[in-house]
Amino acid sequence: MPIKAEMEILDFDDYVRILTETQHNLIEQNVELLRVEGVEVCFDRKAIEKIAKIAVELNEEDNIGVRWLRTVLDAVLEEISFDASDLKEKEGVYCINED
Known about the structure:
Elements: H1 12-20, H2 26-36, E1 40-43, H3 45-61, H4 67-82, H5 84-87, E2 93-96
Parallel strand pairs: 1-2
């Protein structure tokens, strides 16, 4: 017997909370993943809000929920992830901002 459940559409605040408040959230996961590669990354609050805003906008076009967060984060970190082996040689923290 199939089970059907109705879910409420997530809003901007939900996306921000998912990115920051959940245990092992996507921000923490990506920071730790890059730390393993020897690269220090941080996200400022405005960057997190921008990621959530973009995910909400994308979800309006194609409702797949929080999976958009992973897609947007991957796009934001693509260059750093790709160059991680070269970046670990350099000192400093790469801080992701709204821009």
